[in-house]
Amino acid sequence: MSDHLAAGYDLVVFDLDGVVYLIDEPIDGAPEAIGRLRAARTPVAYATNNASRRAADVAGALTRMGVPAEPAEVLTSAGAAAALLAEKLPQGSPVLVVGADALRAEVRDAGLVPVEKSEDEPAAVVQGYGPEVGWRVLAEAALAVRAGALWVATNTDRTLPSPRGPLPGNGSLVAVLRTALDRDPDLVVGKPEPALFTTAAAQSRASHPLVVGDRLDTDIQGAVTAGMDSLLVLTGVSTPADLLAAAPERRPTFVAADLAGLFRPADELRVPLEAGESGGWTVTRDPGTTTLSGAGDPVTALRLLCAATWNGVPLPALRAGSPEARDLFRAWGR
């Protein structure tokens, strides 16, 4: 048996926002954890739905944060979307870009021509996150899609994590067009689609990769779809309450407070924990209620409670049987 979780895998694929950094600030302990993986010669890759930066820019930003990275290790939804369009459209086709300069550059490098107006008769609209996206370009995109352009979204993340709390993400901007057009995008490229993960594994020739993410609806669901093990870290968007209520297709293999969990024994992170008692916590089930008592590591309590909620116990039926459990529920927003 491997002495810690990461040692059991031949590639670790990290999401970025909410896992390695928040906006441009590294999350405490993240550079040290990734440095430890590199020291052990464990291959790493980074798969991000954020389409506002190119791979080289992401690698440079990571390196400045103390996480040395190469562009080849970074897979972005912008690059994946441009590659997909290049497969579907003739070279030189006009594509209306809704997003940042990075997405525009990826489209251009794929042999397509970025345009800004529906009058340019774009063959496709590609939509990715960009902090400057506004009504004017969204209006042009709506007109182009109505005229028959293929509509491709890099991702549908409703929010982006930040030190100030969740901010509107590309999914919120996609929702603007969805409302105006009364239809969904033709294609969504990024997570939870598995392509970023399967491409990372293929590039590293990995047979047993681990996906690390902070979002159940993108990172974890994408890993499940790709048939890969996953670790949910609680440093970003998804909360303990979200995990308790997770549908089967959004359930991780492991859960940890942060990236330090990569160096704990896998059996201390596996979810759900069916034992009913562990690490100072006890879960008892009575007709109509499930009670958490005792004290200890919050992640252990979460794993124990997932065994209940994932087997049909509704969240309102959870009860606190000790002051520590009551404090924990309050911290989880229950």
UniProtKB/TrEMBL annotation:
* Highest taxon of source: Bacteria
| Gene3D superfamilies referenced in this protein's UniProt entry, alphabetically | HAD superfamily/HAD-like
- Cite the SUPFAM superfamilies for this sequence: HAD-like
Residues in domain GCN5-related N-acetyltransferase-like? 279-333
- According to UniProt, the name of this protein is Acid sugar phosphatase
Q: Which organism is it from?
A: Paractinoplanes deccanensis
